[in-house]
Amino acid sequence: MKSLQFLLCITLIFYTPSLIFATTLKESIENAELSGFLRYRYDTGRYTNKDKLGFTDGRGLISSKQNHRWLSHINILNPLLDNIQFHTQFRYGPTKEGGYSNNNIDSLKSFLVREFYVEYTSNDFQTVLKLGKQQMNTIWSENYYDGLVGVGVKIINTSFENLSLQTFIYDNYNQSEQGGRMGDMAEYKKNYQDSKAVFIQLPLYAHNLYGVAALGKHQLFSGNLDSALWFAFIPKNVLFYAFNFAYNFDFAQNSRFILEGVYLGNTLTQNFQKEVNAKNGNFFGIKGTMKAYNFDANLGALHYGNRQKYTITVLEDQGNINVLSGHQIFYTDGSHLNGDRGENSFVYTGFGYNLNKTRIGFDLVYGATKTNVRSLGGKKFEFVGKAIHKYSTKLHFLALYSYLNIDTNDALDRSISSRKNTVRLQAFYKF
Fold it and tell me: How far is 246 from 137, CA to CA, in rounded Å?
């Protein structure tokens, strides 16, 4: 939607005279706030089945051997007036620098401008307006440091007590940052019965996204309730709606119980259903967590998808769903949350122990993906062991191991057990 980009230019031109008189360049630099992070990852993933049954659609999987990944964000906030500030985010991140075979180090990659938007705050109306290129931060996209970026406008109003109201419009997305083919964006096949059929990007991202949200924080009984209601619309394609909540209360000294739940649904247009051979999507998930002294444990379940039709749950990667577990299982054939063909049901549990600055824990996920296509579904099990050491409030270290097993059938109706072992080492520094 070119009108949003035009509006941004008009806004900058309109405010330029007042900004010149409001602050000098020297003052702007002196008052700038700098923040960001540096991250290093070592990933490696190995398969036991050479045909990779259950893993052939590798969107999001850690598949490379000895893969070094670097990522850095530098955020600059420039206050120009009391109620106007500019946000700029620079990003450095070669997607792959392998220490295996003949891969080369990328020493030419430069910092790119990932976010650039102006923020206007009206204290009288308790409203914030963000205009420009910005991370979307919706329930259908990641809300951490690698979420989907769009060009648009977001308005946030907090004039009602314990309630934040949002409205947003985006007309362009940073699909290239999400990895392109086999990345984090939704894809589909015209014919899943044909193993040679190629994946095609879902026809969602060529249209604007219009949305509203209501996020609440309330005290309920003896605990606290966080809830959010979401609606979004992509013309000619789909209407999204979602609800999520998290309720926590202390039941004894140093003991807390947390109950989380989420529902995401969508209604597809008839033309979209026909083009993609798709059906309206529904995702249900619930999770309970108990923390007592240095121990924590959780138990959860989720269900989504359709065995005969393609369905979509989120716009990118795993979205911002608060009831997931495991590490690689939602990137396997038939189970992708950013669009896939398969009816999925999973249960999971996890345990952890905190010792000073270190948490050691593990997660178990078990379930099945049902389809009427050979080698696409199957019974699935994942074990994840994880150790996190918080050296300080700014520096964290992570070591993770994932074992994933899929029992499926090939084209000759033979039972195949396909396994994958994944290791990740990470250092993360925030400033």
Answer: 18
Q: Where are the beta strands (DSSP E) in 327-394?
A: 340-355, 358-370, 378-390
| Radius of gyration of the chain, Cα coordinates, nearest whole angstrom | 23
In angstroms, the CA 39 to CA 430 distance is: 9
N-to-C CA span, the chain: 35
Q: Which two tokens stand for residue 124?
A: 């009288």
Tens of pLDDT along 209-246?
999 999 999 999 999 999 999 999 999 999 999 999 99
Which uninterrupted H or E stretch holds 263? strand 255-268
Rounded to whole angstroms, how far apart are CA atoms 124 and 269? Answer: 41
Instruction: Return the beta strands (E) in 145-208 as ranges.
Output: 149-157, 163-173, 187-189, 199-201
Contact between 31 and 79 under an 8 Å Cβ cutoff? The reply is yes
Q: How many CB atoms sit inside 10 A of residue 136's CB? A: 23
- Burial (0-12, 13-18, 19+ Cβ within 10 Å), 412: exposed
Rounded to the nearest 5°, which phi and psi values hold at 211? -155, 160
